[in-house]
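TICKET #2291
ISSUE: user wants both folds in one file
ATTACHMENT 1:
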Amino acid sequence: MGVPDGAAQQQSQPHAMDGKLPLAGRHIVVTRPAEQAGHLAEAIRSAGATPVLFPVLAIYDIDDRQPLLDIAARLEAFDLAVFVSPNAVSKTLGIIGGQRRWPAHLRAAAMGLTSERELARFGVTEIIAPRLRFDSEALLELPELQEMAGKRVVVFRGDSGRDLLGDTLSERGATVEYVTCYRRGKPDLDTGPLLRLWAGRQLDAVLVTSSEGLRNLAEMLGEAGREMLKGTPLFAPHARIAAAARQLGLRRVVPTAAGDEGLMAGLIKYFSSPDDGRHPAEAAQGAHSHADPHAYPDHGS
C-alpha cells in the first residue's frame, strides 16, 4: 500500500459503521514504512477504523551490493544469520535468493512476527525469535544464543543501528560480521493532507514503531503539526519510543505490548474508556491527568 503523490493516504473503510466494532469511526495514523504497513492497516480496518498511511521512514536499496553478494557466496560458513527487521529480510533475501538456495543447516534469528512472516515467504522456516518482546535484548535472552563460543554469526541490517546484539554475541565468544542490506531515510512527503485531517478533527491516534520514525515525524510536521501531535494519543510498542515521545513534549503517550497485536490491543483498550471519545483538540487541556504515562506499563518491542 503506497502513498500517492507523497500525501497522507486515507484508506477506505469497507466495514459497516454500526458502532459494534471496537474502533468504529476512528482515524488512525500509521507511520510504518509503506512496504510494512499492510498487515497493521488491515487489522485497523477489521476493528472498524480507517488507517491513514503516512510513512515516516523510507527504505532504499544499497548502492553497492557486492558485500552482500560476497556473504551470499559463503553462507555455509555461518552458524546463525540474524535479521534485524522485515526490511533486512526482504532486501537481503531478494538479492541472495537470486543467487543461491538458503543453506539447510543455517538457522535464522528475527526480532518480530513481521520478520518471521517475511522469512517464511522466502522459504526460511528454521527461525529463532522472542515471543513477548521484539528487540535485541529479548533475542539475546533466548537459550539458543547463550553458548556462542566458536560460532560464526552474520547480522543483516540497515545502514545504521545499535551494536548491542553483535557486541554481546562477541563477548559470548562468537565471531560476528555485519552486512548493510538497505538504507533508511526521511521521506519527502507533503504533510498538507495530514494537517488538514488534523484541523478537521479527523485524526484520533498516531502509531509510531521506531524512535527514528518518531524523530522524522516531528521534523516533517513542522511547528504547527507538532502542537497538534502533542495533544494526540500516540501509541508506542516499546519503552524507548515512549520515552523519546515524552522527551519531545508529547502529552498523551500510550505504551503498548509489542508488535501489531500489542498496538491493536492498546488501541482497543484506550478507546474503550468513555473519556477517550474526545478529539485530541478537546482533550489537550486535561491531557496530563487523562493520559498518565504510567497508566499503561511499558513493554518492549
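ATTACHMENT 2:
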Amino acid sequence: MVERSAIIPVRIQLNLLRGGTDVRFKKVFVSLFLLLLTASFAYSQDKTTGGIKGKVRVETGSPGGIKVSIRQGERELTSVTTDKGGDFTVSRLPPGVYGLTFRKPGLSIGTMESIEVKAGKVRSIGDRLFLSIDEGSLAFVRGSVFNAADRSVPNAKVELLKVDSDGSTKKIDSRLTTETGSFSFRLAPDVAKYRVQVKINGTEISREVEIDGAAIYRVALTFAPPAKP
C-alpha cells in the first residue's frame, strides 16, 4: 500500500508537466502565427505606397546630417536625415509628385522638384544633388605674407592653429601662399581663437585672430628685417 501511494503523485506530476508543455507550445505557435500575419499585412500595405532614395554630395566636409524635407508644394510632409555617407531613404509615401529640400548649416540650400512616386516602387534620384558652401554662413581668415622688403612671398607654408582656453594649440589646417603671397582659410563661425603662423628660413612669425561670427578676418604677416650686428 505504501509503494502504490508513493507512485500515484509521481504520475500526476508528470501529467501536469506534460500539460504545461502543451500550453506553452500552443502559446508559442499562436504568437508565431500572429507575427507572420502582421508581417504579411504590413507587406501588403507597403505595396500601396512608395519611396524615394538618393545620395547627397557636398563641396567640403561631411555629407552626413543633412535634413531632407519631403513636401508637396510648400507643405512639408515628413523629413529624414542623411547618414555619414550622404545616403537617405524615405518610405511609405502615397503615390504622387513630391519636392525635396536639403538643408545643413554652412551649406547652400538645395531643392529638387517633380519627383514622381509610384505604388510599390522606390524612386532613386542617384547622386545628382551637390551642395556647395554657403559663404555667408562661414568665417574667413584671409591674409598675405611679406618679406623684410615688403614684397609678397609666394609658396610660403601658412599654418592655422586653434588656441584653447588653457593656451594649448591644435593644428587645424595649412596651405601654401599664392603667387601674390595671399592665403585664405574657411572656418565655422563659432566663437574661438586661432593662430596663423608662417616660418621661412628658420624665422617664424604668427598672429592671433578671434572669431566671433560669420565675417572676413584679415591678417598680414610681415617678416622684420634682420638685426644689424
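RESOLUTION: both attachments delivered.
EXTRA DETAIL ON ATTACHMENT 2: Confidence is low (pLDDT under 50) at residues 1-18, 40-45.
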